[in-house]
UniProtKB/TrEMBL annotation:
The keyword Repeat does not apply. This is Methylase involved in ubiquinone/menaquinone biosynthesis. Gene3D superfamilies: Vaccinia Virus protein VP39 (3.40.50.150). One of its GO terms (biological process) is methylation. InterPro entries: CFA/CMAS (IPR050723), Methyltransf_25 (IPR041698), SAM-dependent_MTases_sf (IPR029063). One of its GO terms (molecular function) is methyltransferase activity. Coiled coil: none annotated. It holds the Pfam family Methyltransf_25. Residues 80-155 form the Methyltransferase domain. It comes from Desulfobacter postgatei 2ac9. The lineage of its organism: Bacteria, Pseudomonadati, Thermodesulfobacteriota, Desulfobacteria, Desulfobacterales.
C-alpha cells in the first residue's frame, strides 16, 4: 500500500532516501562528514567563533532569544540542552536568561573557546559535555525528559529521523531547531564542485523540510519561520578561502592547483576585499511543544 504524504513513515523514508542518495553521489575520497568529522570542526573553531560573534549575528540571535522569552519558552526556571553548542554562541546568552544550560559539543577546539568565554563572562550555570549527539545515550546520561527546552541551532548533529526523535525524547515541553532551507551554504561551493568533479553537487539531506514534515506527521504543529542571509555573510577574502578549502579537504586532495582555483574563484566573488555570496542563503527555524496535550491529528498551529 502506498504511504500517505502525511504519514510519519513516509517522511522517515523520504529523509533516509535522500541521505542514502547524497552518500552515493559523494566522490570516492570523501570522508565521513558531519557530527563525526571532529578534526574539521577543531580546525575551523576560531574562524567559526569569529563569524558567529559579529554584530549582525548577535542582533539576530538576540531577536530569537527575545521571541523565546516572549512566548514563555525560555524563563528563569528553564533547563536547556544545547545540542551542538559550538563555541557557546547560544549557550552563553541563554544562560543569562534561564536556570541552567547543558552544552553538548564534540569538538575540543570549540569547547576551548566556549570555556574561555564562560570564564571571561563569569557564567556559572553552564555544564559542558563533550560528545556527539549520535553517541549520546539519553538513559545513560539521565537525560530522558530532563530538559524544558532542547535547542539545536544549525548543527550537523541533526542528520536524520533518529536525531530528531532524540531531541523530543530529551524534552519535557519544547524543542527548537534551525537548519538550512534549500541548498544552504552548499550553493557557495557548487561552481567549484562542478569544476573539480564534473557533476552537480549532491542534494543536501539536512534541509529543514524533512524534520518539519516528520514532526508534523507525528501530530505536532511546529511554528516555522524563514530568514535570508544574503546580507549577513561578512567574510573577507582570506576567511572565505580558508572556509572553502576546509570544505573540499573532506572530498579531495588540495593540491597547489586546487588552491589556486579556489583563490581565483574567491577573487571573482569579492568586492573591496569582502566576499559577495553567489546566491542568498535561506534558514528555517521551527519551535514546537512535545507535550501530549499539544498533539493533534487535525490542522492548526501549536501557537508557540
Amino acid at each position: 500500500m502506498e504511504l500517505q504524504a502525511n504519514a510519519q513513515t513516509f517522511w522517515e523514508n523520504q529523509w533516509m532516501k535522500t541521505i542514502e542518495r547524497s552518500k552515493a553521489e559523494q566522490p570516492a575520497r570523501s570522508e565521513a562528514r558531519g557530527p563525526c568529522d571532529i578534526n574539521r570542526w577543531d580546525n575551523m573553531a576560531k574562524d567559526f567563533a569569529q563569524r558567529t560573534s559579529g554584530e549582525k549575528a548577535s542582533v539576530k540571535r538576540d531577536a530569537t532569544l527575545k521571541q523565546l522569552v516572549d512566548k514563555g519558552i525560555l524563563t528563569p526556571k528553564t533547563r536547556v540542552l544545547d545540542v551542538g553548542a559550538g563555541p557557546g554562541s547560544w549557550a552563553l546568552p541563554m544562560a543569562k536568561l534561564c536556570a541552567h544550560v547543558t552544552a553538548l559539543e564534540p569538538s575540543g577546539g570549540m569547547i576551548d573557546i566556549m570555556s574561555k568565554r564562560i570564564e571571561q563572562e563569569k557564567v556559572d550555570n553552564i555544564s559542558i559535555v563533550q560528545k556527539t549527539w549520535q553517541e549520546t545515550d539519553l538513559a545513560e546520561q539521565g537525560w530522558e525528559k530532563a530538559f524544558d527546552l532542547v535547542f539545536a541551532s544549525m548543527t550537523p548533529g541533526i542528520d536524520g529521523p533518529d536525531a530528531v526523535m532524540k531531541l523530543m525524547a530529551a524534552s519535557t515541553y519544547y524543542c527548537y531547531m534551525s537548519a538550512f532551507s534549500g541548498p544552504g551554504m552548499n550553493q557557495q561551493f557548487a561552481p567549484l564542485w562542478e569544476k573539480f568533479f564534473d557533476r552537480p553537487m549532491p542534494q543536501k539531506h539536512t534541509d529543514i523540510i524533512y524534520p518539519f514534515n516528520l514532526v508534523y506527521a507525528m501530530g505536532y504543529r511546529p511554528d516555522i519561520t524563514f530568514s535570508w542571509w544574503n546580507k549577513e555573510i561578512d567574510w573577507d577574502r582570506d576567511h572565505t578561502i580558508r572556509h572553502i578549502t576546509r570544505f573540499f579537504q573532506s572530498h579531495m586532495e588540495i593540491t597547489r592547483e586546487a588552491e589556486q582555483i579556489i583563490a581565483d574563484y574567491v577573487e571573482t566573488r569579492c568586492v573591496d576585499g569582502e566576499y559577495v555570496p553567489a546566491a542568498p542563503v535561506c534558514r528555517g527555524t521551527m519551535t514546537w511543544s512535545v507535550h501530549e496535550d499539544r498533539k493533534t491529528r487535525s490542522g492548526g498551529s501549536d501557537g508557540i
